[in-house]
Predict the structure.
Amino acid sequence: MIFLLDRALIRVGLRDAQKFLQSQFTNDITQLKDNRIQVNAYCQHQGKVIAIIWVYKENNDYFLSIPSQLKDIVISKLNMFKMISEVDFQDLSDVLLQYGFLDEVETPPNTSVYSINSNLSLLVTDKLIKKTGNKTYWELECIKNALPEVCLQNSEKLTPQSLNLDKKEFGVSFSKGCYPGQEVVARMHYLGKPKRRLFLFTSKFEVLIGDSLNVNESKSLKSSGEVIRSAKNDTEFYFLGVFEVGHINEKIFLNNDENKLVSIIHE
């Protein structure tokens, strides 16, 4: 169990909570199941992801788990679209604590657990749990499970498709109604083909969020890819990178340094 100190929690309540969130996020809120986390993207009008949001439901209230550094941006955006909807937002980040829960069998008392997938869950409680694991371990498991994240550094720069949120409609529903950026996201799905996708990499060299991924053969004016999530495991780094699909079989270098070759894991 790992204390997720860097995540905020927002409660969305009142009569129009479901209808309002359905009009804002990429996934189908009406299909949210009990004790489950539904992964959503919150996009701006050009279809770029502002934040990836973990949504769960308790009774008639919805809870949004997001990186703390994006909390104020998300709340401001929600308030901007609120208009006449009967909905309110309450910041519970200092009231309810969030823990990453990894394949543990026994659930501590006075806690609620919401599964993200078969390996990862979010535990929520109002009590401080004293014995917790290393945050790096949680980060590694999220990376190995190809769970993307957006931070302040790359907010509004990536599409849902480049983060693989469209695959098996994991984080994007193509049968629900409109939301900000929906036309752009749908057009790419039905009429285009993403040039960049999310891949799992390993490296013997230190890797940081925002580092570039380069290949000599790429004609892109920018780098061929970018690191969005990274963690060290013993002597090597595991990381998720958004990378040009057409160059996955070529030599890939970190920060355009040909001495820093990285390996892509095909899964």
